[in-house]
Amino acid sequence: xxxxxxxxxxxxxxxxxxxxxxxxxxxxxxxxxxxxxxxxxxxxxxxxxxxxxxxxxxxxxxxxxxxxxxxxxxxxxxxxxxxxxxxxxxxxxxxxxxxxxxxxxxxxxxxxxxxxxxxxxxxxxxxxxxxxxxxxxxxxxxxxxxxxxxxxxxxxxxxxxxxxxxxxxxxxxxxxxxxxxxxxxxxxxxxxxxxxxxxx
Length: 200
Known about the structure:
Elements: H1 3-23, H2 30-37, H3 41-47, H4 52-75, H5 79-96, H6 104-109, H7 120-142, H8 147-171, H9 175-195
Helix pairs in contact: 1-2, 1-4, 4-5, 4-7, 5-8, 5-9, 7-8, 8-9
């Protein structure tokens, strides 16, 4: 794939992720996603011959990797720093979109699939959520937290942040995310102190 081709493809994926984060998946057509990304419909089908589900799946993975990069960039100094970086990703999305956008991963996760199938985009959402929780759990274990407790805290963190993002969109301010982040910070710090680890 040429450099220009890669750029166009990534622009379509990023545009789809943004649109899903604003309006959900069920109401979106691949035509609308192409328009939102500012690319021709023909180019969109060229890059995504599988249509809407293929594009949505890649959009979810794109959004997931964006958060992963933020977490990994800070988690070397401790799980709390990684947590705050993760929170900052969503604070930025909320504020810069004037609270019109949330998390595209959650938007896909709550879509009701047909009874006879599990769409690829939904499977991708589950994988991304597992990846996020797994990264935090690993960081907690590396700082002395027992494995089961680390897994439970990591699941709580992801669930709490996703819920807080939804509340922020409804309230049109970042208070729910800020309050949630403060309590998660206390929880993570307390777990590490309780493990006897001095690393943070």
